[in-house]
Amino acid sequence: MQDVPDNHKHNILNESERELSEIDKKINLLIQEKPSAMKKIEEERLNLKVLESKKEEMESHKSRLEYLEESQKKSRYSIKAKRI
Q1: CA distances from 22 to 9, 15, 48, 58 (A)
Q2: Is this prediction's pTM over 0.85?
């Protein structure tokens, strides 16, 4: 920067300071948003656990229903075979 005119040096420094100020504002905003984002993530994790539990329960019910339907079919077939 030795060969750069003082006026241009001043402009470069001002622009650098402006950019640093903008970056600082963005960092502060992100720091402020972090707690609510972390809370939202935790809520979503809990919601996921609830949904996974419900999914397992539904799969269990589905399996039991399929078993019962198959048992009914076999029972009906057995009754028809006895009549013949």
Answers
A1: 20, 11, 37, 51
A2: no
